[in-house]
Amino acid sequence: MSSDEDRIILRLLAREWEHSGPPGILSISDIVAAVELAPSETLQTLKKLFTRGLVDINSMKTSAFLTPEGYEAAETR
User: Fold this and answer.
1) Side-chain-side CA neighbours of residue 46 (13 Å)
2) 8, 10, 51, 54: which one has the fewest Cβ atoms less than 10 Å from its Cβ?
3) How far is 43 from 21, CA to CA, in rounded Å?
4) Residue 52 CB neighbours (<10 A)
5) Are the CB atoms for 66 and 74 separated by under 8 Å?
6) What's the confidence (pLDDT) of residue 3?
7) Which residues lie across from 65 on neighbouring strands?
8) Would you give the distance in Å from CA 27 to the centre of its chain?
């Protein structure tokens, strides 16, 4: 079961996916600015989503994007 924080971030990345095309890449700083969560909470949620395979993060840890499973999870919520 996903938390509200999970849903917020998944939907944000899904909107980017739909707007710009897969995989919906956003900088982590843009994600932090766009959601109404504390920065630490946003980063913790991104890490949790990464661990579950719903979000991937670039090697420099500056951007996050949805995996196909993450997009599917965002769409089913």
Assistant:
1) 26
2) 51
3) 23
4) 14
5) yes
6) 87
7) 56
8) 10
Query: pLDDT 10s per residue in the chain (77 long)?
Result: 358 999 999 999 999 999 999 998 999 999 999 999 999 999 999 999 999 999 999 999 999 999 999 999 998 76
Q: Cis peptide leading into 23, omega within 30 of 0?
A: yes
Task: Kindly give the residue spans of alpha helices, DSSP state H, lying in the chain.
Answer: 4-20, 28-34, 39-51, 68-75
| 52-62 confidence digits (pLDDT tens) | 999 999 999 99
Residue 46 contacts residue 55 (beta carbons within 8 Å): yes
Give the amino acid at 45: T
